[in-house]
Amino acid sequence: MKPQLHEIDVDQTLATTASLLAGQSIPDSVTPDDRIYQLIKDARKLYSDLAEPKSLTIEIERDQFAELFIGERNNHPDALLTELIPLADSFTLFASTAGQKVCTEIERLFASNEFPLASMLDATASEGADLVAEITQEMIRKQLKNNDQLDAGQELLRFSPGYCGWHISGQHKLFDTLQPSLIGIELSESYLMSPLKSVSGVILKAPIEAFDIYDNFPYCADCRNRSCRDRYHTLVAKMENNK
Amino acid sequence: MTNDILTQLTQVLQTGDATAVSDLTKLAIDQSIGTKIILDDGLIAGMNIVGERFKKHEIFLPDLLFSAKAFYAGLEHLKPLLLKEKIASPGKVVIGTVQGDQHDIGKNLVGIMLEGAGFEVVDLGKDVSPEQFVDAAVETNADVIGMSALLTTTMPVMKKVIDLATERKIKDQFKYIVGGAPLSDKFAKEIGADAYCFDTVSAVECVKGFVKGK
Ligand code: B1M
Known about the structure:
The complex is a heterodimer.
Chain A: E1 4-7, H1 17-23, H2 34-50, E2 54-60, H3 62-70, H4 80-84, E3 90-97, H5 100-111, H6 115-146, E4 154-159, H7 171-178, E5 186-187, E6 193-194, E7 198-207, H8 228-242
Antiparallel strand pairs in A: 1-2, 2-3, 3-7, 4-7, 5-6
Helix pairs in contact in A: 2-6, 5-6
Chain B: H1 2-15, H2 18-30, H3 35-55, H4 61-84, E1 92-97, H5 105-116, E2 120-123, H6 130-140, E3 144-148, H7 156-167, E4 175-179, H8 185-191, E5 195-196, H9 200-212
Parallel strand pairs in B: 1-2, 1-3, 3-4, 4-5
Helix pairs in contact in B: 1-2, 1-3, 1-4, 2-3, 2-4, 3-4, 5-9, 6-7
The structure holds CO-5-methoxybenzimidazolylcobamide.
């Protein structure tokens, strides 16, 4: 398969005011003052002006993914994908980014002591990068559906090196195959992507039950996100809605 | 009069009004309230209250950062005087994101809060090599070396910094604090660091503890 480049509408990747407030650990019960709303407004405007969301995807065969997944042989012995690979029947590598301009602006703001805006723009761009990946997954889902390749009971979920026992060095082989430099994403020797607000991984298609994952693997103790259960429940809800 | 200005200064600092903090600091300087008094009883006193309220979740990160911005607006006027009058800070921290890592938001926040607590911070930026950490700590006669990493692959650099100081037989001249999402207390102990700091509040508390114990 050939790689596909996806230019994504920036406003689709714009974090909502509610999610940005939640990201600052501001509880629902608290009404933030006007300056915080203004800050969020300014950060969203800056993001909207500067972000250049893009992603690159390529569908590969199961065997090819299984080999790529072994990577530098650093994965945890109980890595989740070891169980999922036999259950999935479609493997799409992806790399997504919010672009360099927004990252440069965050640095500039910090250097000029504009800490509140710098930090809020950082949070907006972090969410933005995740949303670029989410929209990319949605695009792949639509393509599969349009081609009658999404069976009833099947769903898509994405996984990234650095999570779920898939070692972060797994990005090396992923980059060799996908070549995200085509959209300006580079990988350093320490497996850091630049632009900073970038995400890499694989989108799997499998029966939805396969994604009913519990956060009780040994490596889960090191994970601060623990969003896997939420992601599964979101999938189930989406499936119900699509019925 | 002195007390009035200082009380007002701590108050406007808490509301994060950078213009008012700047104006009041200038006024305090014009009124010849001592530089150290303005810093300690005005700006730092205000930041201490803000830090406590943040710790108790009475205010949130954006509020804290509005106050930090205001603090710097005041500090700007005091810095030349602090230098001229050779007023030493209670402690000096060399801080940076380790080699191979570019994540610096957490490190920046820690640096801001340490300055807000009155410490002198030498920020080496990101992608900092072990040599740069140790050389800067020696050159600036630092008390603490603070290292940040957000990737498991760059965490080993922290050990290299401590090993390099050991090799140069100067390890005990400094305390070492480490922080960042994938780190833990266990990791800090394993590499010989003095403390793992979960967040800005714990970083400030740790450094205060080290400097007090000197
Ligand atoms: C000197 O003394 C001190 C003392 C305290 C110190 C200190 C120094 N330094 C920090 N502290 C402490 O105080 C600060 C203030 O409270 C804190 O600083 P932080 O920098 O931690 O906090 C910031 C203010 C806010 N926190 C953050 O910005 C990071 C939050 C989490 C959720 C996170 C985010 C948001 C993102 N990420 Co990613 N991300 C995670 C993070 C998990 C987590 N919950 O922490 C982490 C860092 N990410 C991870 C990964 C794997 C990745 N991420 C990636 C991407 C992303 C986003 C783009 C979606 C986004 C933004 C990234 C960024 N940082 O700009 C990828 C890499 C990106 C790249 N450029 O290379 C990718 C590799 C995934 C992929 N394959 O795409 C993990 C790294 C673990 C590892 N294996 O190395 C991770 C820990 C998540 C996990 N698995 O639990 C404390 O740590």
